[in-house]
Amino acid sequence: MMRWLTDDSTGAVKLLQQALGMYRNLGDRHGEANALWDLGQVRWLKGDNAKAADLAMQALDVYRTLGNHHGKANALRDLGAVRRVTGDVTGAAELAEQTLDVYHTLGNHHGEANALRSLGQVRRLEGDYVAAAELAELALGMYRTLGNHHGEASTLRELGVVRRLEGNYARAAQLAEQAIGMYRTLGNRQGEASTLHDLGVVRTKGRSYCQTLWI
Fold this sequence. Notes:
Blueprint: H1 2-5, H2 9-26, H3 29-45, H4 49-66, H5 69-85, H6 89-106, H7 109-126, H8 129-146, H9 149-166, H10 169-186, H11 189-213
């Protein structure tokens, strides 16, 4: 795990594979599932989506066999994220709904908020902006209640994107500005840069829209 945190992903993969082999030899199914899950996360960070999905599926199968619902929810979440970025929107939606159900049953509010946001992103990709906005609003409320400012900032940004796609440029700009303020406070430069980009797109779209109305 330390290799992963220090960006030595190649070293992390080797160590996790060694651990996985040992867990299997020992018959330690919990250790096996956790090692598979961690390997999947490293593969995800390396951009190897196919391998990340395969490892998440293996981890999911073991967690289900063990009745480990927290592990199951985490594996479902990761598998859904892979499906989303690879364009399998239908698969991503199904997995996000399953993830949400498990986290809700477990009373894991952070996991539930993350699942709501993920499902909202999928609905946006499907073009269902009403559902996307509703899910983002639910996630936003939960993040605020939990005091999760990173989640709040990310959801403000997501909600701003939805409002832009709906054509509500004024509201989209407000949400982007709120997200930028939070990202700056948190010192999240990547989030700030991405949302500044979003705001630039909103300003351009809004100006074009206004010009069209005057033609």
